Amino acid sequence: MYKTKALFIGCGDAQELLPLADQQEQLLIGLEPTDELFARACDNLKDFKNVLLIKQRIQDWEAAEYLGDIDQIFFIFPTPAVLRGQAKVNTAKIFSLLSQNGVFILYTEVTLTDWPDPDDRARLQAFLQSLSEECLSITVAEINYEQLPLMAKQSHCGILFKAHNITKFTLIEAKK
Ligand SMILES: C[S@@+](CC[C@H](N)C(=O)[O-])C[C@H]1O[C@@H](n2cnc3c(N)ncnc32)[C@H](O)[C@@H]1O
């Protein structure tokens, strides 16, 4: 029924889905495990029939009907602890969901060069290591605020980062 499917892991209040929500031919799936943010996400996106919001962590989502069937998977500003603590199980789940030509895209405020917290940098490195065990092609780039897509700028965290003058980010793109 839908031409394409996009998944947003840890979508928070789901503001990040809004720039794509008018595209009726695309199914947007938002995963958010916390009660309060999930309730806000449902409220923010209630007018869009092509949006499916699920109160789950990525590693707990069974998703049987979507295996190998998601074209784009976004992880926009994950909590750094998630990157390391659940890296293996999460990267395995992400790659089981991606379609043959699908792409996984992650934006994080943590940079490998000059982010001040070494633990966060190690978490990002661990996540990249785990990704590289799952896929053939990974691109990692440092970008500035202006290079973020609208969905990241409009997310709750994106708005906070602008307010706090955080200007450097890491973009990860991975393909099967
Ligand atoms: C830093 S917030 C970012 C929220 C939103 N993407 C944004 O940019 O405003 C990280 C989000 O990931 C969610 N989260 C944490 N662990 C998760 C997991 N294992 N699977 C899916 N979401 C998770 C949190 O509840 C939180 O809403």
| Total beta strand runs | 7
Query: What is the fold named in CATH at topology level?
Result: Rossmann fold
* Helix/strand order, N-terminal first: EEHEEHHEHEHHE
Q: Biggest sheet: strands, sense, closure?
A: 7 strands, mixed
What fraction, in percent, of the residue positions are helical? 25-40%
First-to-last CA distance: 24 Å
CATH architecture: 3-Layer(aba) Sandwich
Across the major sheet, the strand order is 3-2-1-4-5-7-6
Bound molecules: S-adenosylmethionine
Rg value: 15 Å
Domain module tally: 1
Regarding quaternary structure, how should these chains be classified? single chain
Question: Number of DSSP helices?
Answer: 6
CATH hierarchy, class: Alpha Beta
Unreliable stretches (pLDDT < 50, length at least 5) are none
Instruction: Let me know the average pLDDT.
Output: 95
Silhouette: globular
Strand content: 25-35%
Which secondary-structure class do the elements indicate?
alpha/beta
Overview of the molecule:
The chain is an alpha/beta fold and 176 residues long. The protein has one domain: Rossmann fold. The protein has 6 helices and 7 strands; from the N terminus they run ββαββααβαβααβ. Strands 3-2-1-4-5-7-6 form a 7-stranded mixed beta sheet. Helix 1 (35-44) links the parallel strand 2 and strand 3 (51-54). S-adenosylmethionine binds at residues 9-12, 16, 31-34, 37, 57-59, 76-79, 82, 86, 155-158. This is Class I SAM-dependent methyltransferase. InterPro entries: SAM-dependent_MTases_sf.
